[in-house]
Specification:
Helix content is 77%, strand content 0%. It is mostly helical.
Length: 92
C-alpha cells in the first residue's frame, strides 16, 4: 500500500513537471507564482514535498489544466489531452 501511494505521488509530481515543460515555464516562474523559493518548488516536482489540496489546485490553475490532468496515471495521453482541450477551446 505504501509503495503504491509513493508511486502515485511521484506520478503526480512528474505530471506537474511535464505540463510545466510543455508550457515552457521555468521552475522559477512557477515558484514566483506560488510565492515559494525555486528550491521548494523543485522539491514538489521531485516528489519530496507533500502537496496540499490547495497547493495542487494553485499549480493546476497556473498551468491552466484541470486537476484531473495532474492526477492521471497515463503519461502517454497527458500532453495529448491538454493539446486537444486547448484546440477545442480555441475553436469555440
Amino acid at each position: 500500500m505504501e509503495d503504491l501511494l509513493a508511486l502515485k505521488t511521484k506520478n503526480v509530481a512528474g505530471n506537474i513537471r511535464k505540463i510545466r515543460e510543455y508550457r515552457d515555464y521555468t521552475q522559477d516562474y512557477l515558484a514566483a507564482k506560488l510565492k515559494i523559493s525555486q528550491n521548494a518548488y523543485s522539491k514538489i516536482e521531485l516528489g519530496y514535498s507533500k502537496l496540499t489540496i490547495e497547493r495542487l489546485f494553485q499549480i493546476a490553475s497556473i498551468l491552466n489544466v484541470e486537476v484531473t490532468n495532474l492526477l492521471t496515471l497515463d503519461h502517454k495521453e497527458l500532453i495529448k489531452n491538454i493539446s486537444l482541450e486547448e484546440e477545442t477551446a480555441s475553436v469555440k
